[in-house]
Amino acid sequence: MWRIILMVLYNLPFAPWWWYQLCHYAKHTDEIPEDKKYALLKKITVHANKGGRVKIDVHGQENIPREENFVFFPNHQGLFDVLSIIEASDRPFSVVAKIEVKNIFFLKQVFAIMKAKFMDRDDVRQSLKVILSVTDEVKAGRNFLIFPEGTRSKNGNHPGDFKGGSFKCAMNARCPIVPVAMLNSYQAFDTNSIHPVTVQVHFLEPLYYEDYKDMKSTEIAKVVRARIVERIEAAEKEM
Length: 239
Fold this sequence. Notes:
Helix 2 (15-27) packs antiparallel against helix 3 (34-51) and helix 2 packs across helix 5. This protein has one domain (2-238): Glycerol-3-phosphate (1)-acyltransferase (3-Layer(aba) Sandwich), CATH 3.40.1130. It is globular and about 55 Å long. The longest helix is centred in the C-terminal third of the chain and has 22 residues, at 217-238. By secondary structure, the protein is α/β, with parallel strands linked by helices. It is built from ten helices and seven strands. Helix 5 links the parallel strand 3 (94-98) and strand 4.
């Protein structure tokens, strides 16, 4: 909470104009080009992170596919995860989020601009509809981010189990699966500290359809989690 206040205070001279743009873009998201919307989100995010004393240390941008649409699959540490990946990624993406965060102040407008999908984890039928919708949108040209843990980890940089069902949309779309290793993202919003934080975002080598076409979703989940854990453990030794 205190870091969010710090972000707002640091950017107070620009906040009214950015807020107006966010609300306008959110209201007219179907009419505004994708790259223009993402440029606004990225600009606001970069300034907010700087004001909040959060540095984004990016690795592996060359692993983000350029010729194909894809799905990011990061470990989930907290509300800051999406903002850190917005700054780190130079390609626009949407997100699948839990329905509980749909109306959180500021994030509501960000999600509207991104045309995010919201999943009710207690409603199997609704969750299936979301997966089918994401599949169609990836096929049509949109990139997505999905947290395969389903909820944030309570153990800092140590991910929980990855759910195989999270990978169904990528499998059905036959698109690249991009593992993303997050380190220290939880320290931004999920603690009461305003001390400087460095969040590491590692885009790992993608799994292309030819790599996983003969695998079950649960097997893919284990492979992706293992790669992320390996990268996190290596990065922690380097810190």
